Amino acid sequence: MSETEFLSSESTKQAEGRRVRPSATSRIRQDQAAKRTFFIFTLLPIILILIVTVALLVRAWPIISAYHLSDLLFGKTWKPGEGLFGFWPFILGTVWVTTVGVVLSVPACLLVSIYLAEYAHARIRSIAKPILDLLAAIPPVVYGVWGLLAIVPFVDDVLAPLSDRWLGSVSIFSVTQPTGFGILSAGIVLAVMITPLIISVVYEVFQTVPHDLRHASLAVGATQWQTIRNIVLPQVLPGIIAAVVLGASRALGETIAVLMVVGNVPQVPTSVFDSAYPLPALIANNYGEMMSIPLYDAALLGAALVLLVVILIFNILSTIVLQRMLRRKWA
Amino acid sequence: MGMKKKHFERRHLVELFMKTIMRVALVIVAGALGLILWTIISRGFPSLSWDMVSQVPKGGYYMGKEGGILNAIIGSLYLGAGGTGLAIIFSLPIALYLKTYLGDSKWGAYVRLALDVLWGIPSVVYGAFGFALMISLGLRASLLAGIIVLALIELPIMTRAMDEVIRRMPVDLEHAALALGSTKFEVAMNVVTRQMLPGIVTAILLAFGRGIGDAASVLFTAGYTDRIVTSLMRPTASLPLAVFFQLGSPYPEVQQRGYAAALILTIIVLAVSLGSRWLSSRLNKYTVK
Question: ipTM for the complex?
Answer without folding.
Answer: 0.92
